[in-house]
Amino acid sequence: MYSFVDPYRDNQTAEQVIKYIKQLAGDARYRIIHICGTHEDAIMKNGIRSLLPKNVEVLMGPGCPVCTVAPNRIDYMIKLAEEGHVVTTFGDMMRVPAGLGSLADAKGRGHDIRIVYSIHDAAKMAAEIDKEVIHFGVGFETTAPTTASEILAKPPENFSVYSAHLTIPPAMEALLAMGVTEVAGFIDPGHVSTIIGEVGYKPIMEKYPIPQVIAGFEPIDILFSIALILRQIKEGRTEIENTYQRAVKPEGSPRALQLMATVFELVDAPWRGIGAIPKSGLGIRDEFEAHDASKKFDIKLETSYIMPEGCKCGEVLRAMIYPWDCPLFNKGCDPENPIGPCMVSQEGSCFIAARYGVDEI
Fold this sequence. Notes:
By secondary structure, the protein is α/β, with parallel strands linked by helices. It has a domain at about 70-165 and about 255-295: Rossmann fold. It has helices at about 15-25, 35-45, 50, 70-80, 105-110, 120-130, 145-150, 170-180, 190-195, 200-205, 220-235, 255-265, 295, 315, 350-355; strands spanning about 30-35, 55-60, 85-90, 115, 135, 160-165, 185-190, 210-215, 240, 265-270, 275-285. The relative contact order is 0.17.
């Protein structure tokens, strides 16, 4: 029997780890879920799925921050732009479809919607113009601290944030509670883990004891995480293991966590393709309501959004299918002409699969 040594203590080659994975897997079927667009990019780019035995599957869940933004939140921003305000957002958000079209569609109709590279650029813009500037705050725990920091920096009175920030652990728990996909173990996201640390996943473990491994982004990191999940299963253990110790501390980033706790409170939030998840969103606290667009502007929404016929983005985000299982994948829906949100963002699994020309394992 081949002996496997922990990757964060001893060097192992990819060939050795793959051999160990095959030995551990045997003939049983395992479906491992990861929650990170950067992990998916590394998996696709390096052909990791093709190296695994057929009975070991790795699927991406709701790890794309742009893909998971609910359509009504995009419509809210479009309504603000239609009222004559300046809306700022990141480039990936521009083409995501909603009930009123996309932000790019609204910009094409003449409304003032601008791409920024950071929320600080949006705040600086507000200081230079007389209009109201509203920044679309999207992303997970990785980007939320910068939003909190900007709000605490006392930005101009004509600057506000519409917070659509979401948190990852509640979405992982929701997947388990829904039971729509088998989850043998989670590969925890590297970037988010630098903020929330190992402790951020403990509530999941207490309620749903399954193996979790925090992984970095090198191919060997991902292979190690798969091996460790299988080893936990084989040994009857359920733990949070950290193979990304070079970047992730057990306690995460106390400074970033404190910034978020000061500015935000956990609220129920909608996730595209999943639905409402309790205490998964970051709402701006009342003491900062002067910079909270949801309180500053009274916007009524009457639009609704129905996923285009044939689009399976919801199933992709719930880790039920691979991108190429969608009947529209590269057949009317591609990065140049996206129909669903998973084909828009560079962190979307459909976009990544199309980018690398992957249409099967």
